[in-house]
Design goal:
about 300 residues; mainly beta; Immunoglobulin-like; Lipocalin; 3 domains; eight-stranded antiparallel barrel; four-stranded antiparallel sheet; about 50% strand; globular
Amino acid sequence: MQGLIKDAVNGNPLSGVLITVRRPNNAFVFERTTDINGRYDIALSEGSYVLEMSLEGYISATVSVEITRDQNTIVPELRQVPQAKSGSGVVTGKLVDSVNQREVNNATLNIRYGINVITGEIIATTITDSNGNYRIDLPAGNYTIEALVNAYFSNYFSIVAIGNQTTNTPNAVITPKEVQESVSVDFTGSFNISDPKRTYEQYHGFVILSADGTGRTKEFAHNKKMEGNYPETQDSEGYYPVYWSYDEKTQTFTIDWTLKGQLAGLGYFEGQVEGNMTLFTLSGHWAGGSSGRLTLERQ
């Protein structure tokens, strides 16, 4: 697990932040401090954890994380608020459609204390206006917003409130359940292959995913196009078919490169969606059962 902590006001990295790792039942695991660059790197066994961040002169913060076996987890950057900026602050932002970037109005925004907190006590609720904007007054600290609106998948994003000032948050996105156009995904390697017998360690390429759960992809290895892999499955433009799905309840994204019981260079992957439906970090398997990891980032 890796992360970075900065001052919420000036953006400087914070060294010496005490990170207390606990289980959700509050059972203590261990403690660690950030380095001179505000970074931390912690090895944990698979499971759920709560991180408590504390530093003299700053408001304490919490982050919920889920650790997956044999996978690096990047914790969202934490912006810790100085005690001098305690009190109430105003947070503003806009909710937009992930496909067409239009504003999404009348969305319910449930707010919970901490980062990556998707269950538990809702401390405040607001509604987006006719232009998709929201404005809310909160005690200084870090929060998670759950966005809910009819005909859209629910989504979560983080905000920070700074006392006695207004903080404008970058646009948050929410994805419609009935997408009327193709969704483009650009992925660049990040395939970590555990099988030492393989002679390559990275792929990159381009994927187009359609609303009906199908798609097509061109794959590359070491910057060379993968010519000739199962040519009977390629279309006239050299694309291979792929299949994908998204489970709203578990927020699990699945993409399948399996072709007629064979693999077109990749395989079957699934995992949690990160970054407002823009980043997908998926674990899966390759031919012969060896494991790997795939990162897709929406254009």
